[in-house]
Design a protein that fits this description.
With 167 residues, the protein is an alpha+beta fold. The longest helix is centred in the C-terminal third of the chain and has 35 residues.
Length: 167
């Protein structure tokens, strides 16, 4: 069904607004994936702060024109599924990576982070980024190990000092 000019303008404005708030964008092709699997993907996306849009290629190009995401324009060929990560840069990449494991017909075309084009073969660059909570827990474990090591060295120095005084 053909869209009226006003409908197209609304879609371009909506996608453009979403792109402004996005930390990263992943482009995929969902041909061959059944409706129930796509419904599950959309539900998981909402839970992870990812907005998914199916947009006509010409409208996607127009919506991303003049933004850091313009580098993705060459990937807008065939059916295009856009995923905008708004809370964590790796959320959409992680979600699509897991989904592609179960759905062989699902194909990630490319992704972009901070205006840098990243080919689909390097999906793990974003998919393996730790979340905020994971990064904090890693930092805390490193700090805990460092403080425990310092405590052990201090106790060993006290022991050595007492042994020297006793001798």
């Amino acid at each position: 069904m053909a869209l009226a000019l006003e409908g197209k303008k609304a879609i371009v404005a909506e996608v453009s607004e979403t792109a402004k708030d996005a930390l990263s964008i992943v482009v995929a092709d969902s041909r061959g994936v059944n409706v129930s699997a796509m419904t599950t993907l959309r539900k998981q996306a909402r839970e992870n702060g990812v907005q998914i849009r199916v947009v006509r290629n010409t409208l996607a190009r127009r919506a991303l024109e003049g933004t850091p995401w313009e580098c993705l324009n060459e990937t807008f060929v065939g059916p295009t599924l856009l995923a905008f990560s708004t809370e964590h840069p790796g959320a959409a990449a992680r979600l699509f990576k897991e989904f592609a494991k179960h759905e062989k017909a699902f194909e990630v075309k490319a992704l972009a982070y901070e205006g840098e084009f990243i080919p689909a073969s390097q999906l793990d660059r974003l998919a393996t980024l730790p979340t905020y909570d994971e990064a904090i827990s890693k930092l805390m474990s490193v700090m805990k190990e460092a403080s425990a090591g310092k405590l052990v060295r201090t106790l060993a120095a006290l022991r050595d000092q007492k042994q020297e005084e006793a001798a």
